[in-house]
Write a structure and sequence with these properties.
Largest interface: A-B, 82 and 74 residues
Helix content of chain B: 25-40%
Distance between the termini of chain B: 104 Å
Shape of chain A: globular
Strand order of the largest sheet of chain A: 3-2-4-5-7-6-13
Helix content of chain A: 40-55%
CATH architecture of the largest domain in chain A: 3-Layer(aba) Sandwich
Strand order of the largest sheet of chain B: 4-3-5-6-10-9-11
Radius of gyration of chain A: 20 Å
CATH topology of the largest domain in chain A: Rossmann fold
Number of domains of chain A: 2
Number of strands of chain B: 17
Structural class of chain B: alpha/beta
Strand content of chain A: 15-25%
Number of strands of chain A: 15
Oligomer: heterodimer
Distance between the termini of chain A: 50 Å
């Protein structure tokens, strides 16, 4: 049965259903409901909630819990996630699974608390030091906030890598029906974890490889794992694409506005469709390139000055014109605004 | 002094001899160390520490204590950044290597994941007292049941001799080339004393690896700290003043003497805390099932059949509700989507959560739809519920042509016009007041909305109110408010009036 739920709260509900029993975090708008609901729910199901002294401490607590083999998460927004980048690099380097939720707000600096999608580069390209990748999932609804958080834990364990649930202030703050099913929690074995037992005594969790060849080997192993993820994990959704001549591309809250825009454009006789990446890394490049076969023009819309559009252009490799429209500062474009922007760009093409 | 424990850890195969100065020399290492340091890339028979370095002695004392206390299989050793970054090469226990300064944070979570295990955070002075100051203070303040060994040699060793927060006044380093000047760099930081100002720690002692007598004291302190952790006593902390002959440019004997003569006057050896802290337990959270906590209702509890009967004569309805904070603007939106959900519609609610709300005004976007909802943003509402004049003037222009504006007010302001829309003034606050609570203003508006648009069933509204409003007297007022709102619109329609200032024409 459906229940009404805030996006940020749905994240925590999904996490608990995924068997996560440890939350370490620090409050920040517009992500605070994640910490608040974790504080409310986790201790009632035998889990741990701890409000850390900073995001720096929080992510290193996540590191500790992950090293001990616990399913663990944290949540934050831009400025807090910036502080976590060092820890995320360590987590990736030590191959520790964890889930980090970034409810994006306006930046740079203190910016504001309205929605933006300007952490794309930081999360998708890796904002910390060194060669590593985050797996990045982009929910666009309250239901997906729960579902993709559950998936995030599975992927984190599967690839022994941090997984980011990248969303924005609107998806975090909005309420929609949420359908949850109680399910048996099956946690994977983690024979590599350090748990203070005779069986795990020989284990070492570390990201330091002093010898150049050792570090290169380590990175090659990580690359191989990232290649596997690129093969197996790209996820996306398409709507109205069968006969689409113009394909609108956006993720998160923007994809919702774009769906309405595509439908409004169709009312006016413009064959518009929507391509919504669900995984931002691995980016669904192949699917996008395939979708391009019949498309005359792509219009990418983001709440940024143009970040994901680079991945769209890489995927299409110059075969189809790619237009970009971005709003920043916390402004979310309306359907009418996007309709106008698309029509203007189509007119230029003619 | 003769210490029986020293003998007890010795392997029968250990070779010992009497040296020419009469001391017994023991050639052995604790079985708690790996036989061969395989994790090193070369020189696997020896550590990477310099001759005379305090880390070797500290490692040995910790290893022997763990061995004596039979804790090897239970121990998780957290090594930091600094010279002891490679402690995992030596200690045959579970090892976790962590980021610079963050060992107390990581150890916190490790201990909470493994509460009956022994978690050791081993840190140098740059790590603990500079970059990691926040983490150590807060771990200590929470009384984390971990043991921290803080090796203080007054310098950054691994990076080649830069100034540490514990560098003595006047002491030269590569980043204090004329000696530490308090006017520029402040004074040496006294971590043991600082942590002893906190309530939670169970044990804090400072020891020195300066001479045999003090090393034996250090040995006892290390063992005690681990025993306390084993017994669940709380946070234990041993600061170990330690020689760094290489960076100090002294030979090992000189360096030890320097610890005693120069460091101990500034960092006095003392037991700063030795008591089991009394930590109030507080209210324990209830333990419930996952389904219960997450409000997952059983599958068979289907939708109320009455709610499904309502005819929705629309594809979708977009509503914007706006007013001051405290007028129940956000709540009214939530009630509407709860009703919509119960009537098997797709629904969404998006609040204004920005500074706007904090400075006193609030609005929310509500979508009710028979189909999947695209944008949850309502830029062009079909219905605007304006709870005050400010919102009426601010949002009226957004309303769709042919749309509806419901205004909480005795009359529409004389100079207000919204061409192409129907504007109805409802003296909702006044009605709610008369019913006994101004708080019910939003429910009067809801009644008016339901009556005017018929978008949702009043019966659903009642059942939602019954579920959501816990106080019976308030619920009674809300019931009346809902009816009053509906009746007001009904009366208006009946007499054919568009809107009357008194609302009771």
């Amino acid at each position: 049965m459906r229940q009404l739920c805030k996006g940020n709260v749905a994240v925590v509900k999904g996490a608990i259903l995924a068997g996560c029993r440890a939350y370490y975090g620090y409050p920040i708008t517009p992500a605070s409901e994640i910490a608040e609901s974790a504080a409310l729910y986790f201790p009632q199901v035998g889990g741990t909630f701890l409000q850390a002294e900073s995001e720096v401490a929080a992510i290193n607590m996540v590191y500790g819990a992950a090293a001990a083999g616990t399913r663990v998460m944290t949540g934050s927004s831009g400025p807090g996630v910036s502080l976590m980048q060092e820890g995320m690099s360590y987590l990736a380097g030590a191959e520790l699974p964890c889930v980090i939720v970034d409810v994006m707000r306006g930046g740079p600096g203190l910016g504001n608390i309205a929605p933006e999608q300007s952490d794309y580069f930081a999360m998708v390209k890796g904002g910390g030091h060194g060669n590593y990748r985050n797996i990045v999932l982009a929910p666009a609804s309250v239901q997906e906030m729960a579902d993709l958080t559950m998936l995030a834990f599975d992927l984190a364990d599967k690839y022994r890598n941090p997984v980011v649930v990248l969303t924005d202030g609107f998806v975090g703050q909005m309420m929609e029906p949420l359908d949850l099913e109680d399910r048996e929690i099956r946690l994977p074995e983690k024979p590599w974890a350090v748990q203070g037992t005779p069986e795990t005594r020989a284990n070492l969790v570390s990201s330091i490889y002093l010898e150049t060849d050792e570090l290169e080997d380590h990175q090659r192993r990580m690359e191989a794992k990232y290649m596997r993820a690129q093969q197996a994990e790209p996820r996306y959704e398409v709507c109205h694409t069968e006969d689409a001549e113009v394909l609108l591309v956006g993720y998160g809250i923007v994809s919702r506005v774009l769906l309405s825009t595509a439908e409004a454009l169709r009312q006016e006789g413009v064959k518009a469709g929507l391509f919504r990446p669900i995984t931002l890394w691995p980016f669904p490049s192949q699917a996008l390139a395939k979708a391009a076969a019949k498309v005359e023009k792509f219009v990418v819309v983001e709440l940024s000055n143009g970040q994901m559009v680079e991945d769209v252009r890489l995927a299409l490799n110059g075969k189809v014109p790619v237009e970009f429209y971005g709003r920043v500062g916390g402004n979310v474009p309306s359907v009418a605004e996007l309709q106008h922007q698309v029509l203007t760009r189509l007119a230029v093409a003619v | 002094m003769a210490d029986e424990n020293v003998i007890s850890v010795l392997d029968p195969e250990v070779k010992s001899e009497v040296s020419n100065n009469g001391y017994e020399l023991v050639h052995s290492k604790s079985p708690l160390f790996y036989d061969l340091y395989e994790r090193k890339s070369e020189l696997k028979h020896q550590t990477h520490y310099c001759p005379g370095c305090g880390h070797g002695v500290a490692h040995k004392l910790i290893a022997e204590a763990l061995q004596e206390l039979k804790l090897q299989d239970k121990t998780i050793f957290v090594s930091p950044v600094g010279c002891s970054v490679f402690a995992y090469c030596y200690f045959d226990v579970g090892n976790v290597q962590v980021a610079h300064g963050r060992a107390p944070a990581s150890a916190t979570a490790i201990k909470r994941s493994c509460p009956d295990k022994i978690v050791i955070s081993y840190q140098g002075d740059g790590d603990l007292a500079a970059i990691g100051t926040a983490e150590i203070v807060h771990a200590a303040n929470r009384g984390e049941k971990i043991t921290v060994f803080f090796v203080n040699n007054g310098i950054y060793g691994m990076t080649g001799g830069q100034m540490a927060p514990t560098t003595l006044v006047g002491q030269k380093s590569t980043t204090s080339p004329w000696g530490r000047r308090p006017a520029n760099e402040g004074f040496p930081l006294h971590m043991a004393e600082l942590l002893a100002t906190l309530e939670a720690p169970a044990y804090i002692e400072r020891v020195a690896l300066s001479d045999n007598k003090n090393i034996m004291k250090a040995r006892r302190a290390i063992r005690k700290a681990l025993e306390l952790q084993r017994d669940g006593a709380g946070f234990s902390f041993v600061e170990i003043l330690s020689p760094c002959p290489t960076i100090w440019s002294k030979d090992p004997v000189e360096a030890r003497r320097w610890v005693l003569e120069n460091m101990t006057p500034i960092f006095p050896l003392n037991v700063f805390r030795d008591r089991r802290p009394e930590i109030p337990v507080g209210k324990e959270p209830p333990q419930r099932t996952v389904a219960d906590v997450l409000e997952i209702a059983p599958k068979d509890r289907a939708l109320a059949p009455a709610a499904l009967k309502h005819a929705h004569r629309f594809k979708d309805v977009k509503i914007k509700i706006a007013g001051f904070g405290g007028q129940g603007v956000l709540l009214l939106g939530q009630l509407l989507i709860e009703m919509g959900m119960r009537e098997a519609l797709e629904v969404s609610w998006l609040p204004s959560y920005g500074p706007e709300m904090r400075s006193g005004s609030a609005h929310c976007h509500v979508c009710l739809s028979k189909e999947r909802i695209g944008s949850p943003l309502v830029s062009c509402p079909d219905v605007l519920v304006a709870m005050n004049e400010f919102s009426l003037r601010k949002f009226a222009h957004e309303v769709e042509n042919g749309g509806l504006i419901l205004y909480n007010g005795a009359s529409i302001p004389a100079d207000f016009a919204a061409p192409g829309t129907q504007v109805v003034a409802i003296p909702a606050a006044e009605i709610a007041d008369k019913l006994g609570s101004t708080k019910a203003t939003n429910i009067v508006m809801m009644g008016a909305l339901l009556e005017e648009t018929e978008c949702l069933a009043p019966g659903t509204a009642l059942s939602v109110l019954e579920d959501k409003v816990k106080k019976l007297d308030l619920l009674e007022i809300d019931r009346k408010a809902l009816t009053a709102g509906r009746l007001f619109i009904d009366d208006q329609a009946h007499i054919g009036a568009v809107s009357q200032p008194d609302g009771f024409a």
